[in-house]
Design a protein that fits this description.
Helices cover 39% and strands 12% of the residues. It has 15 helices and twelve strands. The longest helix is centred in the N-terminal third of the chain and has 38 residues. The protein starts with 10 loop residues before the first helix and ends in a 13-residue tail after the last helix.
Length: 452
């Protein structure tokens, strides 16, 4: 007799078991019901509990972890971030009350699941917020009924239909990066959106061209599109198809490719970006793993990687390396093909870290500056030219549980690296951020970035 595996059970059985257990039925009664309803004579009560975990894995129900508002407020105060958000807190701390590394890789993976669940819920709220702002802007731009001309009888039906379509065609543009964190956020986000009653048209952009290593295609952003199929709203996908990494000298040439150029031009339309970061010291970071892979295959001299470290490389966001002083040049001679540079995200997030009285929705700081990179042209032609949101998920490594605070601190302290409007971290990371600030004797408030 083969070994029983919960993962091999059909959806209807797993869901039914979870539903009855959560309603308060005893395990013995549920097991008896399964034996009768599914003709499973060998089904035992001890099989109920593994099926609950399987139900969570299949997203039939989810746990909502507690949040630590006090720690989040302390980080905001210490590092002087989020001043332009008024009473809103730019930091979310997922409080599981346990060290991130005490349980090893498994605990790191479980924590990562909770972090990405909270991040997905945050993205849902931002999607609704952006859609509402665009609807209000659209309503203000629509002439009143008395100002509209009366349509001719011949075109009354077609005009009315077209007007209704235009009225409800509010688009929210969402950008998703590559890697495990973005994968988990995308999957959970899709499940969350299924339950939304009113959704705008979603336009989903891939921020990078691939998953780096040939053995890990599932970490490529284009693989996320299937999660959103079937949502009760219009969908549009904007995929970046290109080499994942190119030589630095060929980067500009690749961007001139017609398909790549058109996708990059549409980066200006983005409303919400979801990304993560990696520490240069973490061997599981995608950028470091790829560079090491090039070294091992003798396609990159080992000294190039050492030159990066000697230059102060502490981490990367969207596969763009940075030091404590700001974005770094690609000293290795290779460059990932992505829609956004660090400077783009810093510019888009600048409004969130200004004094609340200095900026208003749609102000100059929320727009691309005159010195915008070629991936984000200065003209803003999207439906809504208001604020953009960048959600940065910065929990520990999902594979080993290593904290990423060494890479996160520069993003908090250096105005030229504040790539986020919203930051999602775990309790251990939050406590470490506070401890590091005390060691460095940081003032209780840091100066925010100057308006671009």
């Amino acid at each position: 007799m083969s070994r029983w595996r919960p993962a091999e059970e059909p959806d209807e059985l797993v869901f039914a078991v979870c539903e009855r257990f959560l309603r308060g039925e005893k395990a013995s009664k549920i097991a008896k019901w399964v034996r009768e309803s599914f003709e499973r004579r060998d089904f035992q009560r001890t099989q109920i509990y593994p099926l609950l975990g399987e139900g969570i894995r299949r997203q039939f129900f989810q746990l909502f972890p507690p949040l630590n508002i006090a720690l989040a407020s302390e980080i905001k105060k210490i590092y002087g971030i989020g001043g332009g958000m008024g009473y809103a807190n730019p930091v979310t701390v997922v409080d599981l009350g346990k060290p991130a590394q005490s349980g090893g890789a498994r605990e790191g993976a479980d924590l990562h699941t909770h972090l990405t669940t909270v991040a997905a819920d945050l993205v849902v709220s931002l999607i609704n917020k952006v859609a509402q702002e665009k609807q209000q802007a659209q309503a203000r731009a629509t002439p009143s009924r008395t100002e509209r001309r009366r349509p001719d009888p011949e075109d009354r039906v077609s005009s009315s239909t077209k007007g209704d379509q235009e009225k409800h065609c509010v688009e929210v543009h969402l950008g998703l990066g590559g890697g495990r964190t973005a994968t988990m956020v995308a999957r959970t986000l899709a499940y969350r959106l299924v339950g939304q009653k009113k959704l705008p048209k979603l336009v989903i952009h891939t921020l990078s061209a691939g998953g780096f290593l040939p053995s890990e295609p599932h970490k490529s952003p284009v693989s996320y599109f299937s999660y959103f199929d079937g949502l009760p709203c219009p969908l549009e996908y904007v995929a970046l198809f290109s080499e994942t990494v190119v030589s630095s000298q060929h980067f500009d040439w690749v961007r001139k490719n017609p398909s790549v150029r058109r996708v990059m031009e549409r980066a200006r339309e983005l409303d919400i970006v979801v990304t993560s970061l990696a520490s240069a010291e973490d061997e599981h970071g995608l950028l470091r793993r790829y560079l090491q892979w090039l070294v091992d295959s003798e396609d990159l001299p080992a000294e190039k990687l050492q030159e990066m470290k000697d230059a102060g490389w502490v981490g990367d966001v969207q596969f763009r390396p940075y030091s404590e002083n700001g974005p770094m040049d690609d000293l290795c001679g290779v460059r990932a093909v992505t829609l956004l540079e660090i400077e783009d995200m810093v510019r888009w997030a600048a409004w969130a870290h200004q004094p609340s009285h200095s900026l208003s929705t749609g102000s100059a700081a929320s727009q691309p500056s005159a010195q915008a990179s070629s991936t984000a042209p200065p003209s803003e032609t999207s439906q809504h030219s208001g604020r953009k949101y960048v959600v940065l998920v910065a929990g520990p490594c999902a594979e080993c549980g290593r904290l990423k605070t060494d890479a996160l601190v520069p993003l908090l302290r250096n105005p030229n690296l504040r790539v986020f409007t919203h930051l999602v971290v775990d309790r251990a990371t939050a406590m470490n951020l506070i401890e590091l600030s005390q060691r460095a004797s940081l003032p209780t408030s840091c100066m925010g970035p100057k308006a671009p």
